[in-house]
């Protein structure tokens, strides 16, 4: 009797446990999902429409211009152009040495240069240049009136407004022609072509801080190609 009652009790207990299990008695309560931080959109399923506030924020972010960094280019500094001067010519070595000392005191190192004498390549007879073209033309008319047809008024260069009266291969012929013209009242001059005496110079490379005005007060100069300097 007792055994039968125990079996019935166990059977009823098992049926009750099974019914409790089927009814969800073992399910854990779902934990509440905390809301996302401000400005961060929450998770959504694929195909689920965006909330109006999220959709507006996304559209505003897409429309905002994107700043692009543009590299700033620094303009290249132009290279300094080297300048060189040749001072002179000087009448002698002593004058050159004095100018060299003055240039050195002004912060400019100058090197001596000598050009040798050149012999004449011929001779010319001419009337030296006049101040104006009109004066040269008037002298030409005087030469023409004296019966001389071999003359020409020069137009260009250092010889402009001078009157050419012929070229000769030697000094003797040029001097003879000079005397003939002077006898007729023409102020002719016989002069060697290319005949120059030896000359003394000073060559210098100008530093960036050189004062050209102060240097010009020391000695006359002219610009030269720096490649020709030693």
What is the topology?
Elements: H1 2-22, H2 52-63, E1 84-90, H3 93-105, E2 110-115, E3 122-127, H4 133-145, E4 152-153, E5 163-168, H5 171-183, E6 189-193, E7 199-205, H6 212-218, E8 221-224
Antiparallel strand pairs: 1-7, 1-8, 2-7, 3-5, 3-6, 4-5
Descriptive labels:
230 residues, alpha+beta, Alpha-Beta Plaits, four-stranded antiparallel beta sheet, 6 helices
Work out the helix count: 6
The strand order across the widest sheet is: 2-7-1-8
Helix content: 25-40%
In terms of DSSP E residues, the strand content is: 15-25%
* Class computed from helices, strands and strand pairing: alpha+beta
How many DSSP-defined strands? 8
Q: What would the principal axes of the Cα set say about the shape? A: rod-shaped
CATH fold-level name of the domain at 122-193: Alpha-Beta Plaits
Q: Radius of gyration over alpha carbons?
A: 55 Å
CATH homologous superfamily identity of the domain at 122-193: Sporulation related repeat
Quote the distance from N terminus to C terminus.
139 Å
The largest β sheet comes out as:
4 strands, antiparallel
Q: Which spans of ≥5 residues are poorly predicted at pLDDT below 50?
A: none
- So, CATH architecture of the domain at 122-193? 2-Layer Sandwich
* Arithmetic mean pLDDT: 80
What is the CATH class designation of the domain at 122-193? Alpha Beta
Q: Could you give the order of the helices and strands?
A: HHEHEEHEEHEEHE
